[in-house]
Amino acid sequence: MPRGRYSLHDPHDDSLLAEEHFQCAPGPSGWRYVSQVTTPSGDHAGSVDLALDELGRPIRLELHAASWQVRGAALDGVTWVRTDPTGTHATEGNVRAHAFTGTSPAFLVATARLLRLTPSSEATRVRLVAFTDPVLAPRTVDQSWALIEREAHPTDNDPLIVDEYQVTALDTGERHIVHIAGDVVLAAPGVELEDLESPPSAFS
Predict the structure, then answer these.
(1) What tens digit of pLDDT does each residue of 68-104 get?
(2) What does DSSP say about strands 68-74 and 3-9: parallel, antiparallel, or unpaired?
């Protein structure tokens, strides 16, 4: 069960925005990721709880940020309920999309798991609902994912398999690189793995 800490940075000026303390693990029905997000000063800023089924579809998502809350799942595309800080207003949304995304590195692992690309695969288009900080506002985004390299790195135990993805935002054409080993993001724009207490889990 990997447990560790990511630092989340502004991808434009590299300023530290938050730290995400996480643990995750595959299970008989899929994969689960839970985390607590703190500000650079150490104050609580939110949380993530994401569960995937064995095909990589989100069967449960719960996000908290700035007293806003989102609960969602894959249902007729993806469906979610977003609740305001007072708890008096809740709005429901539904989009014909494949999954969710957001600032948490968990969503990069989830998308890679959903697509199951190989180095010989064509670039694959995916539609996601992104929840943007700080108020978890929903926005539909289209991306293209391609697995451009899979490399084995020797370790004291089994080799560490690192996948290098090229992710393209289809509305702007902007491209970036994401490195993932098992269920841990090693590097991505705005994401740095600062601490990892145990090796990444390998998906079957």
Answers:
(1) 999 999 999 999 999 998 888 899 999 999 999 999 9
(2) unpaired
At 150 the three-state DSSP class reads strand
Only one residue has tokens 């998308």, namely: 111
Please report, for residues 15, 104, 193, the alpha-carbon distance to residue 9 in angstroms, rounded to integers and kept in the order given: 5, 11, 11
Long-range contacts of 169-175 (CB under 8 A, 24+ apart): 169/141, 169/142, 169/143, 170/125, 170/142, 170/143, 170/144, 171/141, 171/142
Its pTM stands at 0.95
Structure tokens belonging to residue 80? 């979610």
- Read off the amino acid at residue 83: T
DSSP E strands: which ranges in 54-181?
58-65, 68-74, 78-83, 90-95, 99-101, 124-132, 137-153, 160-169, 175-181
Residue with tokens 């145990």: 198
User: How far apart are the two ends of the chain, measured CA to CA in Å?
Assistant: 15
